[in-house]
Structure formats: structure tokens, C-alpha cells
DUF4403 family protein (Mesonia phycicola), 210 residues
Amino acid sequence: MKEVENRNYNEDGIIINIPVKIKLEALEKLIQDKLIGFKIKKDNSSEEKELGEITAISLSPGEEEYDVNIHQEVLLDTILFSNKKVKFSIQLKFEYDYLLQELVVSKYKVEGENKAWLTNQVLKVMMNTLLKKKILDKSKLLLLPKIEEAIQNINDKLENIIEVKEGVLVFGAIDQIQVINLFFKENDLVAILKIQGALAAEVSKIEIPE
């Protein structure tokens, strides 16, 4: 029992490790909100030429060494391909930097579903442009600002004492939340959270089942 107490408590309060699963469906909805309707443009020294628009997007588990597969449908808008819809996928591999609390895109692979060589060449240009603008430039998912916001929200609620059940009150403060690890597993993004703080509970009513 003493070993368990030493592992979960210190002079600053309690320490808890909690695994949190985020479903691909939830991530898919987030990405759909961000990318559907996005205009893909080719950089030019004087102007940006529009290549197409993302009209549909979905997620699935990655293949082989990749974590996630992003399936997209694009409405082409080029001289050769006007109002032509094509499908493709981007497979992504992530690495988690614990010290910086960042999720980083380490590598990717673009696959076109259209077998026409010329169409695939256009897709390659478009996807590299998209990756550069929307993914690789923001490949570092900064977690610290969101964590600080979560701590503040939790502490605001704990200040008023939370009644989690009739006769059971929880109060205290969260001092620190760290993401120990962040990885994809099958249909989930799994986050291992380390929560440290001074928490207490007060029980004023006990019910014994008949």
C-alpha cells in the first residue's frame, strides 16, 4: 500500500495518469470544418493561381508505417482540367515531442486514385502545395496553449466545489497537465495525460444498496 501511495502522491498533491481516446470520427469532423471549401493555389512570384477546391474529405487508419489516411475529393480548376473531380489520399506519419509538447508530421505519401498520368501530375503539384500550406507549415500541433486553457477552465469550476453525485463534493486545484504521449492506434488518437494538483473530496451522504 505504501508503494502505491508514494507513486500517486507527493508533497505537492496528487498525480494521476489518464489515457484519453479521441475517435477518428471526431478528428474527421474537425478536419472537414477546416478543409472543405479550401482553395488550393500554386505559388507564383507575382500572383497565386488557383488549382482546385476540396469538396469532400474523410479519415481512415493509415497503412503500413503510416498513422492516418486522409481521403479527399478535389474539383480541379486548371486549363487542362476544368470542373473535373478527382480523388486522392494523403498518408501521414506523426511523432510526438514530449519536451516541447508537440505533435509533428514526420513524413507523408500522396496517392492519386485516377490512373491518367497527366491528371496524377497535376494532383502531385496540388497536393505538394496543399501540404506546404495547410499541413507542413502547421505540422506542429502546439498543445501547451490548449492545456493552459483547460487547466484554467477546470480550476474555475473547482473553485465553486463540484457535486459529482448527491452527497459527494470535489474541490481543489489542478496545477499541471502534461501529455506524456500521443499516438494513433487503430481508429483512435490516444493521449496519455499526467495530471498533478491538490484535490479532495467530501462525502456527506452514504447509500447502502438493499
